[in-house]
Queue: 2 jobs
Job 1
Amino acid sequence: MTVAGDNAVCAVGQATQFRAATAPLAPPEPVQAATAVPAAVAVVKEPRPQWLDRGRIPCLDGLRAFSIALVFLEHISLIVTRGHHVRHGPREGVAWYFGNVGGVGVDVFFAISGFLITLLLVRELNRADTISLKGFYTRRFLRLMPAAIVFIGTIFALQLAGRLHLTGRNWAHVLTYTANFDPQPAWQTGHLWSLSIEEQFYFVWPIALLLLGPRRAGIAAFAWLIGAPLFRFALLRLHPHDMGRFDFWTPVRVDCIAAGCLLAVAAGDDRFRRMTRTSPRLAAALVGAAAFTMFASYVAGYLVPLYGVTVGHSVRAACVVAIIWLSINHAASTWGRLLEWRLLVGIGILSYSLYLWQQLFLGRDSGSSPATILLNVGLAVAAALGSYFLVERPFLRIKERAGKRAA
């Protein structure tokens, strides 16, 4: 997809010059006394990025690539540390800090999803003065369900072959997109908690956007971001021993999705774009500061659970949307060009299939030798490539045709 601008001033200026050159000479105007006429003040508006209204949004695929890399890093870390634990006993050190770093990657996925989907809905609302809920849910189905059905079908076949076991409760949560409420999920499908949160959120958000409009819906998202830490603190005080289970419940884990939605609503405001305009050098420094703060917050949450449960998610949400905003507005910078590197873009495009299939190959009981880990990573990538080209891509074409007919 390409984006293009337009320029309508040049033709008007040339026509004016032609008429002035061919007009008959007029008698000179009588000289009048100078009068104090206030000069017209030109209002310079912030240039509107073209990606707001059409076309591809830069840098998002590159950010997805970094996100899925964090998920792989967490699962490889779990394999390595568990292997060390079996052979040499418990190990404390830096390696343990990677045990939940995939959650940071999921937060980035959440924020990108909220930003992108809200932006597309706002585009539709601006164009058609409404949102087709049927069209939205059809597109979501075509985007997510075919690959998920193939993955879940593979899990079912492996269970029939006796290679793994899911309980009836596990299957009930998997098939209803409520895996985040499963208190004892199976490893092979446990990662579907994040997809469950997304789909539950998007069952409500387009309706809210349609009924409230972008501005009021943005205020609602902001209110939730402010209230979420207090809500989590109340849950922690009332149910301190169950907080690990509550942490995956949708109302307490949608900070990053809501932050992405709020960013997409704010992006259409000229004042917001003017206030957040930065030079490339300052933007690079802010991206670095946001990334450092995000991971420092992650480590602080690991060391101080009270902080991680209450404020940690909110801090990470703010850092992620800052990185997204600075990246897409400085796509020509060194950081932006890195995110648009073809390899990272390709990984980002594969990220959904990679996320689905890696769980099957990078389990806690997988071999911890370097050769075994490399083999399992290769198998996960091969499965993701097959899923993308044989399943995702054909249905994405159907989704694009459906979107064009709706437009």
Job 2
Amino acid sequence: MTDVAAAHTDLPDATAAGQALGAEIAATYGGEAPQAVILFASSRYDYPALLQAVFDTCHPGLLVGCSSAGEFTDDANSAGAACALALRSSTMQFAAGVGRGLRADRAGAARELVASFQGLRAPRYPHRAALLLTDALAGQTEDLLEHLTVLTGGTYRFFGGGAGDDARFQRTHVFCGHEAIPDAVVGLEILSSRPIGIGVGHGWEPASPGMRVTEAAGSQLYSLNAVPAAEVFEEHAEATGQVFDSQDPLPFFLHNVLGIVSEGQHKLRVPLGVGADESIACAADVPPGATAHIMRTSASSTVDAAARATRAALAQLQGHPAKAALFFDCAATRLRLGQGFGTELRAVEETLGPVSFAGCNTYGQIARADGQFSGFHNCTAVVCVLPD
């Protein structure tokens, strides 16, 4: 049996906000301490004060989380706020760990994180997953996932996203215990006697012919079909009757992302800015030699994709009732949809039914699970459903 509590606050003071979250959780548990609390919080907060207040009021056994770019639960949705999901279960076991120094040594950070996992040493739980929250601004998140997959022998399913900072793209933090840590990845290991569902989906489709990524380095895209990247996007804008302003390209980019062909699908990359050399900075790595398309979507397609991802996660529970869920979607999706992002959340809520959930808008989304489109994504809905 699993007990869950979702809490949300938009109080501006960090201590007051932490107390409000902790008090709501404590009231749900009747004073009993939750095994784990997952916390998402705007960059407006003093994180040490926020974390301390949560600990003082609900006394969690473990606390993980990250800075964010929009926070929500099944009954609240806002930006510049904080929310949490608390868990207590007789069918699941939790452990938390952190890997530091991502920019300097991703392999070392992965080893440090995996050292905290209990399932590799005590494999009595048949279902293993881990919530991963990382500093995506450190880059190379796909590489980090590869290291984690190898270190765990491919026996874990991963989900989560990149920490945010209210769309400033300057400095993000992950939370582990009382610490708020930049340049790091935090993980919450979830070992379960019952299946865990993970669903992935986006509503984008190709709007251009396939092009070869002829030059790229990390997240910097230099050319497609040997043509400067910015020129390719400008030509696409002209062909489709859109406005492309290289001095202020984000309004165009939010509706025209790059889709990298992978596993027969498109892994999305959000362009962020144009360089003086006509290169384009993207929100995640672009592999040289890949085939790519400029993509298009609609608000209804995005909402439908989130509902599909939720249904896929529910189907993996193999008949067990759902009890709690975590939902992640891109900060760019929130910027593009505006108030319409609430429609996406309602679609998730209606698909889940009477299930508490919490989540945040992230800088990229993580999903690595059998039967799902795996890796590090942008503009993609990721849903994890936990069983009762």
